[in-house]
Amino acid sequence: MGKNATDLALKIYGLAWKAVLPCLRFNGRLKDGWEQRTLAGGVPAPARLWMQAASGGEAYLAWEVLKHLKPTGTDTLRVLVTTNTLQGYQTLVRAASEINGRKAGLAVQPWYFPFDAPGLMRRMLERVRPELAVLLETEIWPGFLSACKKSGVPVLLANGRMSTKSLAGYMTWPGLFQAFAPDRIMAVSETDGRRFATLFGRERVQVMPNVKFDRMGDTRPMPRSANPLRDLIAAETPFVIFGSVRREEEHDVTRLAAGLMSARPATVLGLFPRHMHHLDLWRRAMDGAGLNWVLRSKLNGPARPGTVVLWDTFGELVPAYGLAAAAFIGGSLAPLGGQNFLEPLTSGVTPVTGPHWKNFAWVGREVLESGLAVEACGWQDALESLKKIIDNTPSRREVAAAAGRYIRDRRGGAEAVAKQVADLLNKD
Q1: Are 260 and 227 in contact (CB under 8 A)?
Q2: What is the pLDDT of residues 379-403, one digit of tens each?
Q3: What CA–CA distances, in Å, run from 246 to 28, 31, 90, 163, 177?
Q4: What residue ranges do the domains of the chain occupy?
Q5: Do 3-216+412-425 and 224-408 share a fold?
Q6: How far apart are CA 141 and CA 138, in angstroms?
Q7: In what order do the strands lie in the sheet with 268-273?
Q8: CA gap 409, 214 in Å, rounded
Q9: Sign of dihedral through CA atoms 407, 164, 81, 156?
Q10: Percent of the chain at pLDDT exceeding 70
Q11: Any idea what the Cα angle at residue 301 is, between residues 269 and 341, rounded to 5°?
């Protein structure tokens, strides 16, 4: 794409932002940090490094990379970390609190990522004056990237993932994105690397371990005596979790739940919706299947065998895994990409997933080939797998130990990103 065509595309892009910005003011999810998103309340302090983490998950990755940065010289390395969501911002605030004053030579400032209007991004770059920008996962913002190009700021895209759908979208106007290509791309798999290379060229792309493996740490199963949910599930009661189930797979999940409770009537089933605002949908689904259910918030003692517990409280999925005999991981019976099944594994539970888990392909098919996790072709297959696990539950300690070995062999992503950052910052 020629310079004139690029400039015209950016102008149109900027006009679109100008038209839509007044409407965004009424978006409930964007009201948090509005003044930072629009720079109406000022701009952050200058920083040598600007790291962008789209939401909560990427913010944890940024936190991991920050822990691995090794500032050199006598000057403090000032890092601006930005995000698009409230959850991401809260995570970055915690990261900054941990690092600032505790890690010598590093100062972290959290901020909301400005709206990608080219004018806003130019103003942001002029004020922050970074020497390097790091984008985590797939963050391709034309306004931001064009401002970096005009300011001579190199861009590193790290822990990069790209789906075939995303690639197809970018390839509808490849010249625009190629004009603002990141200088270096670190993809989490050869497959992702090939997709990035299709758009940006192979010479920019390398493959790295996924930082998400670093985040897992040396997680061990939580002893029952320390589990905050221990009074809700009797020790002798088989407890099965349906984790992060999605609205789009309601029909199959309901049939799976009904089949499980019929085949193993002494079971307690904990159903964790991926989105809490769909809780009424799951109430109706359980009623329609004739299943006994209770809200987690209404439990005052151990759940009765044969009951489905609809989990309506946040932040309890991981400790719940610590009490489970088996787990089905949602988002995988419909083509939704799946959910993270490393969490039950590190809690000592063998997870069962449906066939649709491409969003977690970075985990590697070896996790299935080694027997650490089970892939079911549909809900009936998932039911049979869950029944086998309930009837012959593997040792929690042995499952967690095998998962730990699998994860340890795949760590190193945060260190690899930190080394690239040091290389680009110290480049003459």
Answers
A1: no
A2: 999 999 999 999 999 999 999 999 9
A3: 22, 26, 25, 20, 33
A4: 3-216+412-425, 224-408
A5: yes
A6: 9
A7: 293-295, 308-310, 268-273, 239-245, 326-329, 351-353, 374-375
A8: 10
A9: positive
A10: 99
A11: 35
Number of Cβ within a 10 Å radius of residue 405: 11
What does the radius of gyration of the chain's CA atoms come to, in whole angstroms? 23
Pairing, β 326-329 against β 374-375:
unpaired
Burial class (CB in 10 A: 0-12, 13-18, 19+), 361: middle
The CATH number of the structural domain formed by 3-216+412-425 is 3.40.50.11720
Query: For residue 411, what is the DSSP state?
Result: -
**Whose structure tokens read 């995303």?**
166
Report d(CA 107, CA 78) in Å as an integer: 5
295-329 b/e with 16+ CB inside 10 Å = b?
Answer: ebeebeebbebbbbbbbeeeeebebbbbbbbbbbb
What sections of 25-85 are H helices per DSSP?
34-38, 56-68
Token pair listed for 294? 């209770």
What CATH architecture is 224-408? Answer: 3-Layer(aba) Sandwich (3.40)
Give dist(CA 73, CA 50) in Å, integer: 19
d(CA 80, CA 44): 8
Average pLDDT by stretches of 10, the chain with 428 residues: 78 93 89 95 95 93 95 88 95 95 91 96 96 92 94 96 90 86 94 94 96 81 94 96 97 98 98 94 98 97 97 93 97 94 93 94 90 97 98 95 92 97 88
Residue 186 identity: M
